[in-house]
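Here is one chain, start to finish.
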Amino acid sequence: MTNPIGGRFVVPNVVVTQFNLNEGDLVADFGAGSGFFMQPLSKSVGDDGKVYLCEIQKQLVETIGNLARQQGVGNVSALWCDLEEAGGIPIADSELDAAILVNTLFMIEDKETAIIEMARTMRQGAKFFVIDWTESFAGMGPQAERVITAIAATALIESHGFVLEREYPTGEHHYGLAFRKI
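Its structure:
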């Protein structure tokens, strides 16, 4: 590890400290994959909070749901979601206090629809944390032409009712952007 935030790559236990989540918060991990952020998010919101792990790959939804049950993480629900469809996230309007989107923005084809759909689930004042690759690194992450710069991500997200509050450290090959829904 080469820096205090965790070295070259995103370390969930460390990065989640940047989210300033509160006991009782309702949080979604959009594009949860294998549940990399499940444990630290669950601990951050406590027993009174709720974490939705949103994933489009049905096999992964089943896998992370089983993992949550096996680990006794009772405040987590794995949900099949399609971020690129209006109504594709089975979370009520204005329900979430916070959401994260980690290493997923570059994969989304219809970014406009996805941002609108994610925003629909967040209440006014909700926090939205975006982490993505700054570059294509050693065959990992996106192909160079798929990298979404922090500047482009900020412009896209701010054009849909969010304001950038700050950047935060995430590791050598990623950026972290903290937005608030206005």
